């Protein structure tokens, strides 16, 4: 009896730390291209190097990410680290990074942007990209491990999203502020714009209208900036006003914020996520512009430099992961498989293990390129009347060995259509997540049709291995 009790306790302990999606997820996105030469081992190798070189343990189970000056940590790095560790299913590191974040918040409950080692604020107040990445990572953590353990990821994500809404979105304009204490219509940073996250936040907090407006404003600002400054491709400026014009408040930044350098370089990556996850048409247009700039104007990924004027002339001299990888992500929406494969190989072959920024971003980019930076499928969707064409619907895992989950509004009708065009399964959903078992079916590509009572529908693909 005693042995049985010990076994039961051990099982329950293991169960509490069970994860929904071990690495690698190997998701095939419903939109865009995937590199044919992708390999999740590349992403894992990058992660292992990143963790060995930039993660440091503090006391009391906290972890920090080393900045360029190794004795410093910036909130951006904690956000990046939370994304990487949650998608790697590295719970110990994820929890430690989040606890470190919470140890160093200001009065608005967002992390002070620069910390001296394990404690001691150097740079006060928030940097919005860190909050966005941390909030998305918490939502994925709630999916990965649930929220019944020592950390309630769901409530923490909800609180952080509320802080972003209240302090880092300009009131009445939906402009993303670059921090909780500055910015808005007079100065913003396009490389912080994360419209895919906003769509997730909207469903997670049942605040879809607000967050969709923030997403729409992001594209308005980006397009204004490109048009006003006669930009080539997707070369947005590092900083700008909401009107798209250069900001008079950006004088302290590189080139007055008027060029495409180490801030703006991340924009193609963030926007590509919106196309890959949600098929957004604005995201598609932007990623294709960015990809075509490299493929056509530059003659390929190998010619990328680390900085451009908006007219496309190079001002940088280095070929590194920050720029190469973001453009490789854009190539996932660029409609040219050969260019994407070449871009992936170019990024893979870059080795900058000692560079905090270049290697961290290379690792994040490689997660997306290999299908390991995926849409968290358990975000809360509102019930009742819904427009299926505007709803968020995901399938996970995809490809699948036999079972997969459809995440869709309640009261949807799910139809599974075989490769030969026959409806082999149909059911009405009673919850947001519905498991479908195709264990008795042959391998191939199946169509999953999700419809509402108004006979509107959307169709997704799932690959049965």
From TrEMBL:
InterPro entries, alphabetized: 6-hairpin_glycosidase_sf, 6hp_glycosidase-like_sf, Glyco_hydro_8, Secre_tail
Keywords per UniProt: Carbohydrate metabolism, Cellulose degradation, Glycosidase, Hydrolase, Polysaccharide degradation, Signal
Reaction equations catalysed: Endohydrolysis of (1->4)-beta-D-glucosidic linkages in cellulose, lichenin and cereal beta-D-glucans
SUPFAM superfamilies to which the protein is assigned, alphabetical: Six-hairpin glycosidases (SSF48208)
Residue span, Secretion system C-terminal sorting domain: 395-463
Broad class of enzyme this protein falls into: hydrolase
EC number: 3.2.1.4
Pfam families membership: Glyco_hydro_8, Por_Secre_tail
Highest taxon of source: Bacteria
Family the UniProt entry places it in: Belongs to the glycosyl hydrolase 8 (cellulase D) family.
NCBIfam families tied to this protein: Por_Secre_tail (TIGR04183)
Protein name from the UniProt record: cellulase
Organism: Flavobacterium piscisymbiosum
Upper taxonomic lineage: Bacteria, Pseudomonadati, Bacteroidota, Flavobacteriia, Flavobacteriales
